[in-house]
């Protein structure tokens, strides 16, 4: 009877949980549970292949992309993005220098050494706590190579009284030039599609990053964190170099991170020697996308049970929405979020939504009760608890209330919460 709206780990569809309990104990009558078998067994291989196939179907992933299962969560990918994409940038410069300097290895090394310090940039759009953390991780990793290599192309707090909650117009973003191999050049543009703590979601793919609108040579390599809105709407994967997300919100349980990466990026991640000669780290093996891809995501021991759960969640989405796939899920997610936002807006003296209307997240609905009055917000949470509505406390860094509306949150539970929101507003 508990209706849970926590921000993650989050609920799973009940049938997946029931099948999961069986599979944990005795998988397909083999006498062994899924956490008890080798990650190199044929069973494990089939689970990886099925889960990849489910994701490919749901997102229409083009054939020039690979799907990796990795360790380390979203936070691990904050580092992996920097390690791998800087290595790709360096390798592209090395190839160019090699062709221009007739293979003179000392000159090549010297030229790329200068270029790294002078030209390398990593662009971050900071729209909330998670993209901020990712940009800070990048700055920390790059510190030994050079300062100011991280370009904060957008800090959304600046136009919003020091707080997250808006995405300023694209003409105000300060993206680095992308000139393919010369001058200052960004290795990638990074953004977080849905900011879980702050309730800010990009309404759509940013126009200024859209390859279709730009000269092919200036096409930015776009990296997106979709940890908290993965599989909640359609995504044109072909616009991205890399998409990643931890599984524990919309895809399954914790322990596995999904990475969708373009194959030409994988084939440009160089072996360590040139990077080492420049004094730059080579990506650590378990964060090295090329190593993980080459080993079919089995470079080291992977949590097969978690990957199986993710596969079952994908299967259940496909079964539920049929041919409409993620268009169906998008409609449902929008409808559930609208029910809540409509009540909040209709009772605006009781409830104040934190983010601006145009960037409100459909997944994490953040608001204050009576302008953040601590006693009334506590009363709100206690009253919800008494109706078995749980997980509503906002993130400790921002306070307030947060309703997480992930895929497995049922319409029935949204309606129960809607009733409570209305009843509480009548009292205040
Ligand atoms: N990115 C986003 C958008 C998140 O919501 C989270 C966690 O909640 C993370 C990254 C970090 O994920 P993890 O805890 O798997 O490292």
TrEMBL record:
Its EC number is 2.6.1.52. The keyword Transferase applies. It comes from the Eukaryota. One of its GO terms (biological process) is L-serine biosynthetic process. GO terms for cellular component: cytoplasm. Keywords: Amino-acid biosynthesis, Aminotransferase, Pyridoxal phosphate, Serine biosynthesis, Transferase. It holds the Pfam family Aminotran_5. It is an enzyme of class 2 (transferase). It catalyses: 4-(phosphooxy)-L-threonine + 2-oxoglutarate = (R)-3-hydroxy-2-oxo-4-phosphooxybutanoate + L-glutamate; O-phospho-L-serine + 2-oxoglutarate = 3-phosphooxypyruvate + L-glutamate. Its cofactor is pyridoxal 5'-phosphate. InterPro entries: Aminotrans_V_dom, Pser_aminoTfrase, PyrdxlP-dep_Trfase, PyrdxlP-dep_Trfase_major, PyrdxlP-dep_Trfase_small. Transmembrane segments: none annotated. Pathway: Amino-acid biosynthesis; L-serine biosynthesis; L-serine from 3-phospho-D-glycerate: step 2/3. GO terms for molecular function: O-phospho-L-serine:2-oxoglutarate aminotransferase activity; pyridoxal phosphate binding. SUPFAM superfamilies: PLP-dependent transferases. Residues 4-86, 153-417 form the Aminotransferase class V domain. The keyword Amino-acid biosynthesis applies. Belongs to the class-V pyridoxal-phosphate-dependent aminotransferase family. SerC subfamily. This is phosphoserine transaminase. It comes from Heterodermia speciosa. The gene is SER1.
């Amino acid at each position: 009877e508990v209706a849970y709206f926590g921000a993650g780990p989050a609920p799973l569809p009940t049938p997946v949980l029931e099948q999961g309990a069986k599979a944990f104990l005795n998988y397909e009558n083999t006498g062994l549970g899924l956490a008890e078998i080798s990650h190199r067994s044929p069973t494990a291989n089939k689970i990886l292949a099925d889960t990849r196939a489910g994701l490919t179907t749901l997102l229409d992933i083009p054939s020039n992309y690979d799907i990796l299962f990795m360790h380390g969560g979203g936070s691990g990918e904050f580092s992996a993005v920097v390690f791998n994409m800087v290595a790709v940038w360096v390798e592209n410069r090395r190839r160019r220098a090699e062709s221009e300097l007739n293979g003179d290895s000392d000159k090549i090394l010297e030229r790329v050494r200068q270029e790294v310090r002078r030209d390398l940039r990593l662009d971050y759009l900071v729209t909330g706590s998670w993209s901020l953390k990712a940009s800070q991780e990048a700055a920390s990793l790059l510190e030994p190579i050079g300062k100011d290599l991280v370009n904060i192309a957008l800090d959304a707090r600046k136009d919003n009284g020091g707080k997250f909650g808006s995405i300023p117009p694209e003409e105000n973003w300060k993206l680095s030039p992308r000139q393919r191999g010369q001058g200052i050049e960004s290795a990638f543009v990074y953004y977080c599609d849905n900011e879980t703590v702050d309730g800010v979601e990009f309404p759509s793919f940013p126009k200024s990053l859209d390859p279709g609108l730009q000269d092919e040579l200036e096409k930015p390599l776009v990296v997106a964190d979709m940890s908290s809105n993965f599989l909640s709407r359609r995504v044109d994967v072909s616009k991205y170099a890399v998409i990643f997300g931890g599984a524990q919100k919309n895809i399954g349980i914790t322990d596995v991170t999904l990475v969708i990466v373009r194959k030409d990026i994988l084939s440009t991640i160089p072996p360590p020697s040139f990077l080492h000669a420049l004094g730059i780290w080579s990506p650590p093996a378990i964060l090295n996308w090329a190593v993980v891809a080459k080993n079919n995501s089995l470079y080291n021991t992977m949590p097969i049970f978690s990957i199986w759960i993710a596969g079952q969640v994908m299967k259940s989405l496909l079964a539920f929405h049929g041919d409409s796939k993620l268009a169906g899920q998008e409609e449902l997610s929008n409808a559930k979020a609208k029910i809540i936002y409509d009540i909040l807006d209709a009772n605006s003296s009781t409830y104040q939504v934190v983010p601006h209307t145009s960037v409100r997240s459909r997944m994490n609905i953040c608001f204050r009760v009576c302008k953040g009055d601590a006693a009334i917000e506590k009363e709100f949470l206690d009253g919800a608890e008494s109706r078995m509505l749980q997980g509503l406390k906002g993130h400790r860094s921002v306070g307030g209330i947060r309703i997480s509306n992930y895929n497995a949150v049922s319409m029935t539970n949204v309606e129960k919460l809607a009733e409570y929101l209305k009843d509480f507003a009548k009292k205040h």
